[in-house]
Amino acid sequence: MRRAALAAPCLALLAWGAAPAAAQAPTAPLEKWNEISAAALTGTDLLALDTETVRVRRRLAGGGLGPVEFTYHKTDLVGVGLAAGRRRFTRAAFDTRLAIRNSIGSQSGARLATGTDGASVVLPGAHGFAPPVVWCCPASGIEVVVESDGRSGAQRALAAGLDGTRVRMLMRSADGDVALVSASPGLLANPDDLDESRTAVPFAGRPSGGLAAIADGVVAWTEDPATGVVRHGAPADTGVTDVADTRFGGRVLRVWAAPGTVAALVRTGRVASVRTLEVASGTVRTVWRGTSLPRVAVGGGAVAVADGRRILAARAGPVARVAQARGPVAAIAVDGDRVAWFERVVIRRGGKPGRWTVARLARVTR
């Protein structure tokens, strides 16, 4: 538990996107080509998880680089402010909000959840070890490690999200049983205080392969992806209530949740589709269909899909194209009437090509 390093510059400016910090920028670039594990839009910021494996080489006497001395794995939560009109960025660079490091294994596939109070929860990907769950960073700049256990046989977080100000996690034990664990790190007077509000109750299911998601008022998961059935309910300190099953069809490949909405990417034969469930009415809709596996985001009552370089989004019905990316899309986020995406581009500077990841914004028109 520690204070986060806020506003630490981690990304350089693109020549064609450079602007004074106070000016509005049409793009926000990263001078890197790392994995963008996840992205999210909040009321004031675009956030993303920048994940990579770093190999540190020995510096030779002549100034050259020698063999690898050690390797570490990192996930940075980076963010950039949104201008008042929410269609441009406040500056053409990201800041680091949170840094998670380990020397055990890759954090590829890290997940990000945001809440209504501006807080976020980061769940690094984990390959052979139990990942930490980290809550971050209100105006105080404090981060709290909500869950971290490096022991062999430790419980592993399958999903984590924000339900109001409550952090909720699905924790699987070595015997396969799953518990719904809840905590309130934002209410701690000191980040090192014991969270007396923490609860743990049995969970009504065993999500398969971590196919689960948590958002404000909803938890969704699948027990058996091959059946095409997604379960959902309302999380609480005492357990999950109003559990219902919905048949999405096909094989479930991924599950997302947002307040009032559950989405799933399913495959039937060679055809993939994105289907949404309106929790209140139980209505299931197919909003996209294709042969590739797209990037998907839900939020603010909208759905966004990155199909190749096409950016599609809608608040109701099938998604429609709202923009065309200039390069492959690494991640996408949506929040009602806005969609943001990270695209890979190659920029030539001084005669040398450079690989960049650039964030852009567009309006959801319907």
Question: What is the compact description of this entry?
Answer:
With 366 residues, the protein is mostly beta strands.
Describe the protein's architecture and organization.
The chain starts with a strand and ends with a strand. The protein has strands at 2-3, 8-9, 28-30, 35-41, 45-59, 65-81, 95-102, 111-114, 120-123, 133-136, 142-147, 156-163, 166-172, 178-183, 199-202, 212-215, 218-221, 229-236, 239-247, 251-258, 261-268, 271-278, 283-290, 295-299, 302-307, 310-314, 320-324, 329-335, 338-349, 352-363. The chain has 366 residues and is mainly β. Residues 1-22 have low confidence and may be disordered. The strands form seven sheets. A five-stranded antiparallel β-sheet has the order 1-11-10-9-8, with no helix packed on it. The chain has a five-stranded antiparallel β-sheet with strand order 2-7-6-5-4, with no helix packed on it.
- Major sheet summary line: 5 strands, antiparallel
How many strand elements? 30
Number of helices: 0
Task: State the helical fraction.
Answer: under 10%
Radius of gyration: 20 Å
Strand order of the largest sheet: 1-11-10-9-8
Low-confidence stretches: 1-22
Order of helices and strands: EEEEEEEEEEEEEEEEEEEEEEEEEEEEEE
Task: Write down the overall geometry.
Answer: globular
User: How far apart lie the N and C ends?
Assistant: 43 Å
Oligomeric status of the shown chains? single chain
- Residue-averaged pLDDT, rounded? 86
- Beta percentage is over 45%
Structural class: mainly beta
